[in-house]
Amino acid sequence: MQQFYKKLMQDYNTELSYSGINGERLASRLYELSRIGRTESGGVTRPGYSSLEKQAKELVMKWMEEAGLTVSTDGAGNVFGKLDGRNAGPSIVSGSHVDSVPNGGHFDGPLGVLGALEVAEAWKEQGYVPEKPYEVAIFSDEEGSRFKTGLTGSRAFMGKIDAEELNILRDAEGNTFEEVITSYGSSVEQYLEARNHNRQIETFIELHIEQGKILEQEDQPVGIVSGIAGPAWIEIAFTGEAGHAGNTPMPGRRDPLIAAGIFIKELEDLPREVSGTAVATVGKLDVHPNGVNVIAQQVEMIVDCRDIQEEPRDRLVELITEKAKTIASERSIEVNVKVNTRITPLPIEKELQDKLASALHKFEIEPVYIPSGAGHDAMNLGSKYPAAMLFVRSKDGISHNPKEWTSLNDCVSALHVLKAFIEDAMDESV
Questions:
Q1: Which residues participate in Zn(2+) 1 binding (predicted)?
Q2: Nearest CA-CA partner of 312 in 361, 336, 345, 341
């Protein structure tokens, strides 16, 4: 994994380290985080509410304290490092997450956390005291890979999740949410109390890798998010009749895997029926009992569907549900459909987009406006507070993969834009 640090540094333009922003420090910290939960293929696995996610948070908390921030956590495991300003009042907040998908990359989440922290580090070196309070945030379990539901920490923070939903959550090992959160060092009661925070937030700004190819195509290091698509995760279980693969005649079989295959094929055509920006994906499929010579008894899958507008996204959920029930009926099998997650899309206010464009122009970067198909913590914060996002160029658009890569030059260029945006926000209406 030392190669990860060397690769970051090998093409780095050290002239980008100025105004307190230090590219070498950022590279070192990205490397240190990459070692927590690393996989044999060079990726990282840090599930939400795991000991590995907690270890990553504790490392960043140590860096926060060294930078002079006052660190606190809530019952959902969210972390906040606060720097007091010259004046009291609502904070400018920036941050992201440090959990990952299984065998994911090293930039998705950590770059936003370490980038927000680097702004505070830069101010410390410059002797700059912000006019308003500033906070660096780490939100828990953003990816949602453990419980088949995402953005868990920021949803708790914003009061967007309740005990009823938590009661039905199970991880792959069958552990309940209550068991997992207790092992983590909290409780369901404390988790739900995260919504009763006393924080005042003026603006939330999240820095994140693009996870797409638009900035690469436009040859720009940093772009502006115009809106965030709201994901809906639909759990579908087709249940048929298990049997011997050799002794059961083809006519009359009630094979749920056939139904699942037909469903997945026809799913491809559904998004275009609602809009040009809607998408739907089956990325997780479990076959039971999964024997080579056994007709399956049950097939479970998760459908991820998204759009940047809520109405067509919800219509897509209806179409997916209808399609699953129709296929099950035609194949004489049972089906159970449950919507695990439904997040409201977030359009970014034009005023905030204009302010980000102004920050980009300071560094002679041409603004590129990009709708985010991926969900982010910013969309939960944005339901109550003004929220904005910056994207950083992703090599080949690859993400959720060990090959995920963003050059250190692009990372640091983005940090200068982030810092300029936050400093401009500090000077407004003091």
A1: 97, 108, 208
A2: 345
What does the alpha-carbon distance between residue 77 and residue 41 come to, in Å, rounded to a whole number? 29
Task: Give CA 34 to chain center in angstroms.
Answer: 17
Q: What is the rounded distance in angstroms from the CA atom of residue 240 to the CA atom of residue 261? A: 14
Domain match, 264 and 223 both:
no
pLDDT digits (tens, 9 = 90+) for 143-194: 988 888 889 999 999 999 999 999 999 998 999 999 999 999 999 999 999 9
Q: Say if residue 250's pLDDT is above 70.
A: yes
Q: Which CATH number covers residue 98?
A: 3.40.630.10
What Rg do the C-alpha atoms of the chain give, in angstroms? 23
288 is in an annotated binding site: no
Angle between helices 23-34 and 2-10 (to 10 degrees): 150
Length of the chain: 430
Q: ∠ CA 397-403-406 to the nearest 5 degrees?
A: 55
Q: Are 16 and 412 contacting, i.e. CB atoms less than 8 angstroms apart?
A: yes
Bridge partners for 205 per DSSP: 94, 388
Query: What's the average model confidence in pLDDT over 302-314?
Result: 92
pTM above 0.85, yes or no: no
- At 76-107, the pLDDT tens digits run 999 999 999 999 999 999 999 999 999 999 99
Which pair of tokens denotes residue 70?
């006052």
Angle ∠(134,139,141) on CA atoms, nearest 5? 175
CA distance 316 to 293: 36
Nearest CA-CA partner of 63 in 97, 29, 108: 29
Annotated binding residue 143 = yes
Between CA 23 and CA 29, with CA 27 as vertex, the angle to 5 degrees is 120
Q: What does the pLDDT read at residue 429? A: 64
Task: For residues 99 and 8, state if they share a domain.
Answer: yes
**Domain final residue, candidates 342, 364, 383:** 342
Residue 108 labeled ligand binder? yes
- The domain total for the chain is 2
Task: Report residue 1's pLDDT band, with 50, 70 and 90 as the boundaries.
Answer: low
Find the CATH number of the domain harbouring 314: 3.30.70.360
